[in-house]
Each structure stands twice: as C-alpha cells, then as structure tokens.
Amino acid sequence: MGETTIPRGGRVRLGTVDGDLRVGSNVRITADGTVRVSGRAQFEGSAEIDGSFESREFRGEDASVVVNGDLVVHGPLHVEDGNLEVQGKLDAQDVDVDRRLHVRGPATASQIEVGGAFQADSIVTAREISVGGTMVARGTVTASRVEAGGSVDVADVAVDRLEAGGRIRLLSGSVKDRIEVGGQFVAEGPLAFGKLEAGGQIELGGDAKGQEIEVGGTFRANGSLEFESLEVGGIGEIRGTARGSRVEIGGILRCGASLELSDSLEVGGQVEVIGDLEADRVQVGGKLRAHKILARTRIEVGGHLQSQVGTKSAELVLGRRSQALGPLVGGRVQLRTRSRAEDIYGNLVDLENDTEAARIVAEIVRIGPGARVGEVVYSQQATIDPSARIARPPRRATDLGPFPL
Q1: 310-323 burial, b if ≥16 CB within 10 A, otherwise e?
Q2: CB-based burial of residue 398 (10 Å sphere; 0-12 exposed, 13-18 middle, 19+ buried)?
Q3: Would residue 167 count as lying in a domain?
Q4: Contact 78, 56 (CB under 8 A)
Q5: Which candidate, 41, 108, 53, 48, places its Cα nearest to that of 79?
Q6: What is the pLDDT of residues 55-108, one digit of tens each?
Q7: Has residue 369 been placed in a domain?
Q8: Is 77 within 8 Å of 58 (Cβ atoms)?
Q9: Overall number of domains in the chain
Q10: For residue range 265-310, what is the model confidence (pLDDT) as tens digits?
C-alpha cells in the first residue's frame, strides 16, 4: 500500500483510497459515494469534504476539517491544534480534538476528549467524555463519566458520573454515582442521582430522587424531593413534598408541603413548613413554623415556635426568651428562662425563671421563680417556687385525660 497526496489548494474527487491519504491545506474533496481510506488519513491545514468519509485512522495537525456527511474512523481520531466539524454522524474509537469538535448527527466513541468546546446536536454515546472548556449536547448523553473544566449544557443524561468546574444545566436524566460542580447546577425536569454536590447553587425544576445533596450556597427544588441527606450552607427551598433521612441548613429552610425525615433536622436560622413536619430530632436556632410538628426523640427551638395543630416530642425544649404558639406535648417539656408558651401537656413539665404558660397538664410539674401560669393540673407532684404566680390554685387529678396529638 502506498500514499495518496493532495497538495495545497487541491480540488479532487475521491472514492476508495488504497493505503494512506495525506491532505494539504485549503483542500476540497468531493466524495464519489463515500471516501474510504484503508490506511491513515492525515490532514495538514484546513480541508472540507463534501460527502461521507471513512478511514482506519484520522489525524490532523494545525487543521480545521469539515465533513459534510458521516465520519467513521475504525481506530484513533486525533486533531492536534485544530477543529473538527461533522455534519452527519461520528463513529470512532478514541476521539481527541485540541480545540473544537462539533457533531450534528449521533456521536459514538469509546472516549471523547476535547481541549476547548464540544457541541453535539444529537445523541452522544461514549465510555468517557472529557472537555476542557464547554460541552453542549441537544440529545441524550450516555456515558460512564462526563467532565468539563467549564460548563455542561445537555438535554438528557444517562451517566454514572458528571463533573464540571463552572456550571451544569440538564433538562432531565439519571446520574447513577455523583454530580459535582464548582458553581451552579440546574435540572429543569425530573432527575435521579446518587450524590449531588455544588459549590454555589442547586436548582431542581421537576421531581427529584437521590441520596446525598450538598451545596455551599442556595438550594431550590420546585417539585417533590426524595433523598438521604441534604446539607445547605445558606437557604433551602422545597416547593413540593420532601422525604428523606437528614437535613442540615445553615440559614433558612422553606417547604411548600410536608417534610418527613427518619433522622434529624438541624437549621441555624428559620424553618417554615406549610404542611406537617415529622422527624426523629429537630433543632432550630431561630424560628420554627409548621402545620403540625412531630419528633420522636427531641425538639429544641431557640426562637419562635408556631404550629396550628400542635408540637409533640419525647423531649421538648424552648430556649431562652423563646415563644411557642400552639399546644406543646411531650414526655419532658422544658421552658428555659423568660420563654413563653400556651398549653403544655407532658409527663414532666419544667418551667425555669420568669417563664409564662397559659395551662399545664402533667404528671410532674416544676415551676421556677418569677414564673406566671394560668392553670396547673397534675397527677403526681407539683413543685412551685413561692415567687411564681399561678392564676388558679393548682389542682391534682387522678386522671389527666388524653393529651392532644
């Protein structure tokens, strides 16, 4: 087998080439059916192929090649310091383009590596995809791993791992293992994932189901959300129903429906749940508001607690100077100094100094100095500081009756 050479500025018509093909700069090739090169095709400079092209190897040096048809390469495809544009489909083994790769038809390869920008107007199937700059795909991307130094903008994904240094935007899809992005992550439709981690912002437009979510700034889910853990440095918002294991928020959490957790809710600032809140443990530094609040083990609120139906836990603690609206029901209920509540029901109710309560119904009651209570009903013991003020004389009852909730 020999080598066929097309000199600089050549205009030729080709069909089958036996051996290698060397193409100079500023060359235009018209395909006689499909150009089939049995060996290696080497491009030096700019070239345009009118029709489909097939070769064992495809290489370019300082080249900008346009294929107005399909491109099939049975071995490696490497364009060094150049660009490649394919108007039809791309089918190759290892694809390596230094600057820009644009494929208008389906793209299939074992590995795709682009130094600059990769644009795919149809589906992309590969084992691994690595892009130094930006990746845009208008069809489904199927791969084991996709990574980009800049941004990723794709219609749909079915991948194991997805990473970007700047921004990721999806219409929908599934990421089996993890999503990791330095800045912003946006999914406009339904999404299934393993771990989702973003340095700045996460926005989920549809229903989402995953395991771990971690974001340094803000989180918003416009649909329902199922998860194992959710960690947000700033503000978290879930407009639909949320169900998971653990939530930790540095600032504010808003939920437009119910929130159900098998483990803990920890929020440094405020929590607002339009529906019911259920968890094992709840700790809120500031304000907590929900339709109904249930925690199996413990609730501790540092600021304002409000529930329409009531709040219930094995242990319930109101911090200093806090206020509770709605019934409080617990095994042990503690109001710390200068906190206020309405009706309280429990096995043990403990009011510290200068606290206020409208009514207490409990087995054991302890009321500290300066406290003010409207009514006390107990079944076992009531210890009341002499400086406390009780509007009605404390009453002992053998049967306290059923507690709310």
Answers
A1: bbbbbbbbbbeebb
A2: exposed
A3: no
A4: no
A5: 41
A6: 999 999 999 999 999 999 999 999 999 999 999 999 999 999 999 999 999 999
A7: no
A8: yes
A9: 1
A10: 999 999 999 999 999 999 999 999 999 999 999 999 999 999 999 9
